[in-house]
Amino acid sequence: MKLEHFGYSDKIEKLRIQKNLTDFEVGRIISEHKERYIVKTEKGELDAEITGNLRYTANTREDFPAVGDWVAISEYDDDKVLIHSIFPRKTIIERHAVGKQGEKQIIATNIDFAFIVQAVDRDFNINRIERYLTICNTSNVKPIIILNKIDLINDTVLTDLMSKVQERVKQVPVIAISNESQKGIERLRKSIVKGKTYCLLGSSGVGKSSLLNNLSGKQLMKTNEISSSTNKGRHVTSHRELIVLENGGIIIDNPGMREVGIVNSTDGLDITFEAIIELSKDCKFKDCTHTTEVDCAVLKSVKSGELDKSSYENYLKMEREKEHFESTVAEKRKKDKNFGKMVKQFKNLKKSNRY
Ligand SMILES: Nc1nc2c(ncn2[C@@H]2O[C@H](COP(=O)(O)OP(=O)(O)OP(=O)(O)O)[C@@H](O)[C@H]2O)c(=O)[nH]1
Ligand SMILES: [Zn+2]
Q1: Are 141 and 112 in contact (CB under 8 A)?
Q2: Nearest alpha-carbon partner for 68 in 27, 97, 121, 16
Q3: What's the CA-to-centroid distance between 159 and ligand 1, angstroms?
Q4: Per-residue pLDDT tens for 107-163?
Q5: Which residues are annotated as a binding site for Zn(2+)?
Q6: Which CATH number fits domain 3-88: 2.40.50.140, 2.60.40.290, 3.40.640.10, 2.60.120.10?
Q7: Which residue's C-alpha comes closest to atom 7 of ligand 1?
Q8: What residues does ligand 1 touch, defined as CB less than 6 Å away?
Q9: What residue owns the CA closest to ligand 1's atom 2?
Q10: Which ligand is nearest to the CA of 291?
Q11: Which residues bind Zn(2+) (predicted)?
Q12: 93-259 belongs to which CATH class?
């Protein structure tokens, strides 16, 4: 398989030349587990580790390779390679690191499009769509909304749901599908662009795995099935988190992808809730929080029914979450800075032989 088949492009080749990486071979990270990587190259899928230098110069977790990354590699043994450097990333999807206040964790990189999957039955919730949209807008990933399980509802209900979504979410394509009846699947398949990388976002049970199996024509193992089988000590090498479809599209599906949910950027919110941002220009106070202020254009618009009330409430909720996240990040930076100072002082002491 050629590099192009799993997403390589002229732009990435230019980066390779710019960064003086032409002496190395190129691969794409397709799986990561505790700093053991699998890299897809033209020769096949190879086990990989990072060089000591890359580890030594890494300041944060973001400096380590992630699924989706293009990397400069060299072979050191049969089927084993060393990762020397990571190519600059086009897009990054990240989230709050679990159990680590204020730290981010990269879920996947270099994703072009995200399928925001929602089932039309119990899961249907436009607030949640807006949440995933904000993640896409934060990461510069283009969103496509997928309404799944349409076999469970009739056409009138579907038309109603579609218009509800489009009323609140403008300029994002919406595709209705069913993995059961196969309705809409062909249309979705045709919309997938060769050489572009996709990911699946959505709650548990909406049908992401079913869709992936459907699109790939294969029964791929579920990530949770894999972790339970490795627990039993079975050797699992067949699982890949980056899948190349027959029509040339590439899909990243890894365990972390399924836990993405926290909003952490102003830009992302501003794009998702563009209408609110536009209105806020007419608020009396520049720092209006649109909650209790007089002459607040946003509140006025909610009152008149022009602005959807649930969309407004969803915006406030995510805004609060974002603020909380930012304050924990700021706190952490302060702590790190203090720690850095301490290390420096210690090193100086050592140098002057006083330690
Ligand atoms: N009726 C109907 N059921 C579906 C459809 N697609 C998936 N399902 C069912 O919904 C359930 C959940 O589907 P999965 O594909 O496992 O959902 P998932 O999003 O991968 O879930 P997680 O792995 O927990 O993230 C399964 O029982 C599927 O058979 C559909 O189009 N119609
Ligand atoms: Zn206001």
Answers
A1: yes
A2: 27
A3: 22
A4: 899 999 999 999 998 778 898 899 889 889 988 999 999 999 999 999 999 999 999
A5: 283, 288, 290, 296
A6: 2.40.50.140
A7: 207
A8: 148-149, 151-152, 178-180, 202, 204-210, 222, 258
A9: 149
A10: 2
A11: 283, 288, 290, 296
A12: alpha beta
ipTM of the complex: 0.97
User: Do residues 115 and 144 touch, judged by C-beta distance below 8 A?
Assistant: yes
Q: How far is the CA of 203 from the centre of ligand 2 (A)?
A: 32
Centroid of ligand 2 to alpha carbon of 130 (angstroms) = 20
CATH 3.40.50.300 domain locations along the chain: 93-259
Inter-residue long-range contacts of 125-129, CB under 8 Å, 24+ positions, other chains counted: 126/164, 126/165, 126/168, 126/169, 126/310, 126/311, 127/310, 127/311, 127/314, 128/203, 129/165, 129/169
Q: Residues spanned by CATH 2.40.50.140 within the chain?
A: 3-88
Position in ligand 1 atom list of the atom nearest CA 210? 15
Rounded to the nearest angstrom, the gap between the alpha carbon of residue 343 and the centroid of all alpha carbons in its chain is 34
* Lookup: tokens for 134: 């904000």
Where do the CATH 1.10.40.50 domains begin and end in the chain? 266-349
Dihedrals phi, psi of 281, to nearest 5 degrees: -65, -25
Q: Which two tokens stand for residue 65?
A: 């390779």
Predicted TM-score (pTM) of the model is 0.79
